[in-house]
Amino acid sequence: MHSSWSSSSRIFPSGAYMRRLICFKVEHHHCQIEKMVSSDKGKVCVTGASGFVASWLIKRLLESGYHVIGTVRDPGDRRKVSHLWKLPGAKERLELVRGDLLEEGSFDHAVMACEGVFHTASPEETLVPAINGTLNVLRSCMKNPFLRRVVLTSSSSTVRIRDESQHPHNSLDEAAWSSVQLCEKLQLWYALAKISAEKAAWEFAKENNIDLVTVLPSFVIGPSLSPELSVTASDILGLLQGNRCTPFQFSSIFFKKQPLKKFHICY
Ligand SMILES: NC(=O)c1ccc[n+]([C@@H]2O[C@H](COP(=O)([O-])OP(=O)(O)OC[C@H]3O[C@@H](n4cnc5c(N)ncnc54)[C@H](OP(=O)(O)O)[C@@H]3O)[C@@H](O)[C@H]2O)c1
């Protein structure tokens, strides 16, 4: 949440071949974050607060002293949110408010007065709600005069699904995009939704001068704070139960959640 970094970055924290670039950025930012955390503990919003990634992110933000507004579809659903209330600092600095990606204006209240918005919520494998939901959050951000940066959790599936015969020696970095045609051909609807949502976010951010960063994790593994299974955990369980998968579905490199929450905060 700081403005000294060039705006508009895609962060691809999974490939070994990207490690140098990522390490440089993390080191570069880490001291700035520490400085910022110790001097200015602002208010930030995390959408999809009950989720696997968001729960860890909220834990880290609370530990760093931020005031966190988390959005969930039903703040009264104890099964989904009780783990959040057990986090250190939650009683003092966490608020859970309602936010539904499918409802226009649903995030107006949540993002208001927040300096940073971490948009992690994602409807499962659905194209139009993924695009509209992301734009919905960004439209709410536009109404907030205090906004400094939006961090969108996208996916490595927006980068790595390419016809290798057409890109034989290309390494992947944040400039690469997955092939929409190949995703359609292989019926990779989740990837298609993430590509479309991220592209829509970049277009909207550029048109409206929003400082946007996208984080592109692959499979995030590690202990879950929530008792619920994340989408990825369900997919992996499905594999163990003998479900079939496409070659691209599980082709990415596993990425532990420990550094991921730092990537979200550092950028
Ligand atoms: N986990 C991974 O390995 C991985 C890898 C790459 C990218 N990602 C991306 O990282 C983000 C978080 O993933 P995750 O694994 O933490 O997912 P998750 O545990 O399934 O959480 C997603 C959250 O999205 C919220 N949500 C779903 N539909 C919604 C709607 N219509 N309105 C508002 N909220 C809605 C749900 O919150 P409620 O039901 O409580 O409202 C849910 O807690 C996603 O954008 C995902 O695409 C994850």
From TrEMBL:
Q: Do the record's keywords include Oxidoreductase?
A: yes
Q: Which domain of life is it from?
A: Eukaryota
Record GO terms (molecular function) = oxidoreductase activity, acting on the CH-OH group of donors, NAD or NADP as acceptor
Query: For the NAD-dependent epimerase/dehydratase domain, which residue ranges apply?
Result: 44-228
Is-annotated flag, keyword Glycoprotein? Answer: no
Which CDD domains does UniProt cross-reference here?
A: FR_SDR_e
- Keywords of this protein's UniProt record, alphabetized? Oxidoreductase
InterPro entries, per the entry: Epimerase_deHydtase, NAD(P)_dehydrat-like
- Which PANTHER family does the record associate with it? NAD DEPENDENT EPIMERASE/DEHYDRATASE (PTHR10366), TETRAKETIDE ALPHA-PYRONE REDUCTASE 1 (PTHR10366:SF821)
Q: What is this protein called?
A: NAD-dependent epimerase/dehydratase domain-containing protein
Protein species of origin? Zizania palustris
